[in-house]
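Try this one yourself first.
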């Protein structure tokens, strides 16, 4: 049998066997007749030991030439070793250099965030970024699985759109064959019609907001998952938010143990979320609580970033803030029947200062109300005619929410700034790489 080419994730199946592994030199050090190469291949890290008396002189000489991030193919016997991270090391018999890398820009010393972001294409190779990307991937898979198993249909919403969904101040405009198009701020307006066609739907894709603020919680391009459900009312929506968040967090805790350890994430702070049972606070209660905690917020004000942090510090799991003043929220929300000045809106705030990760609402099902809202929000009526059709042809109660993936990743990973929660962040001052 020829020698298998394997990944570091597959070592356990090959103990005692000679294998070849392809990857990059993460690090190396020498000690007398020994050379220790830490190889990374995208799946893990492996210590490879070159012992001079046991290898051809050519292999030893090759080992001497190595530099950080050189690409190599290493052959050797997989040896179980309790002291080795991962439980195995490779006793090297062959070493082939694919390319010797010049000095890697990201060295051992501390680099500032700008330097690292300018080298994002290389920074992704670091242990920390590797772990974050793995958590993100698992989270996205958990989200799709959540909806798939509950019989939702995936509806891919368009990115080029004729109108605003979440306010006109953060629209990216582009010329579109003599017309103006906008990059989508949310797939919601397209999901509502789809919910009438398919009952339970969701979209999951990139979303764009020309956010002029430089905060750690805002990207100009981010990924959002948005479910929309026919016949779902506000209370059911709150339950859905809770079930969704607790399940996806539980799944990531279960499947990303090593990645979270590498990130030195205190997972005891995430476990309560997996149990569900999220506190629910009416907006008025939230304002009163904030005042008692020393905030100068007044009834009618939106919660600022500091307020969100202050409030979430009181709980060990996400908190649902409900029934905001309608004036603070988007045009499409259903007024609260018991007080029409409030909207049947919910924001879910994540603990540890992460702030809002979900925004959702019951949708207005009244044609007249929506017509008034579109006028009141100064939105171009012509661009919304098709949307209003959903209230003309079999209007129905429905509700949904949107969650920004990066905010959820940042929270789960314990990363303070969203720029590390997406492979290639887009920020007000950053379009590169
Ligand atoms: O609260 P938002 O604006 O709600 C909507 O877009 C609704 N149409 C969603 C719906 O009901 N279908 O945004 C939803 C979430 C926020 O809670 C936040 O997690 C994320 O999207 N988000 C951002 N994430 C990163 N950068 C930004 N600039 C974001 N703006 C919103
Ligand atoms: Mg919001």
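Now uncover the answer:
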């Amino acid at each position: 049998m020829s020698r298998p080419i394997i990944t570091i994730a597959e070592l356990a199946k090959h103990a005692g066997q000679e294998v070849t592994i392809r990857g990059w030199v993460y690090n190396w050090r020498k000690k007398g007749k020994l050379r220790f190469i830490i190889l990374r291949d995208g799946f893990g890290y492996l210590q490879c030991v070159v012992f001079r008396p046991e290898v051809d002189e050519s292999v030893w000489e090759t080992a001497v030439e190595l530099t950080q991030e050189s690409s190599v193919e290493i052959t050797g016997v997989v040896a179980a070793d309790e002291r080795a991270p991962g439980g195995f090391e490779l006793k090297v018999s062959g070493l082939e250099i694919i390319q010797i890398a010049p000095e890697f820009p990201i060295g051992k010393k501390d680099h500032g965030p700008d330097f690292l972001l300018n080298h994002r294409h290389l920074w992704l190779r670091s242990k920390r970024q590797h772990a974050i990307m793995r958590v993100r991937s698992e989270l996205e898979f958990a989200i799709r699985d959540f909806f798939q198993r509950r019989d939702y249909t995936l509806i891919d919403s368009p990115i080029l759109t004729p109108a605003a969904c979440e306010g006109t101040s953060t629209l990216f405009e582009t010329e579109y064959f003599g017309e103006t198009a906008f990059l989508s701020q949310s797939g919601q307006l397209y999901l509502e019609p789809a919910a009438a066609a398919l009952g339970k739907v969701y979209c999951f894709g990139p979303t764009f907001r020309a956010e002029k603020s430089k905060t750690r919680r805002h990207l100009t391009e981010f990924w959002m998952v948005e479910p929309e459900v026919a016949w779902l009312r506000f209370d059911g929506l709150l339950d859905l938010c809770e079930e969704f968040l607790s399940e996806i967090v539980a799944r990531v805790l279960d499947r990303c143990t090593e990645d979270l350890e590498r990130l030195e994430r205190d997972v005891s702070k995430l476990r309560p979320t997996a149990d569900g049972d999220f506190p629910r606070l009416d907006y008025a209660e939230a304002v009163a609580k904030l005042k008692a905690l020393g905030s100068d917020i007044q009834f009618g004000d939106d919660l600022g970033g500091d307020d969100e942090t202050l409030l979430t510090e009181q709980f060990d799991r996400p908190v649902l803030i409900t029934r905001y003043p309608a004036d603070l929220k988007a045009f499409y929300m259903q007024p609260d029947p018991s007080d029409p000045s409030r909207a049947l809106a919910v924001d879910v705030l994540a603990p540890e200062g992460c702030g809002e990760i979900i925004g959702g609402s019951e949708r207005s099902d009244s044609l007249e109300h929506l017509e008034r809202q579109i006028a009141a929000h100064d939105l171009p009526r012509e661009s919304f005619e098709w949307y209003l059709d959903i209230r003309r042809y079999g209007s129905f109660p429905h509700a949904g929410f949107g969650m920004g993936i990066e905010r959820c990743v940042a929270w789960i990973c314990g990363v303070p700034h969203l720029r590390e929660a997406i492979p290639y962040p887009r920020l007000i001052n950053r379009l590169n790489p």
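Discussion: The two ends are 44 Å apart (CA to CA). The chain has two domains: 5-99, 117-420.
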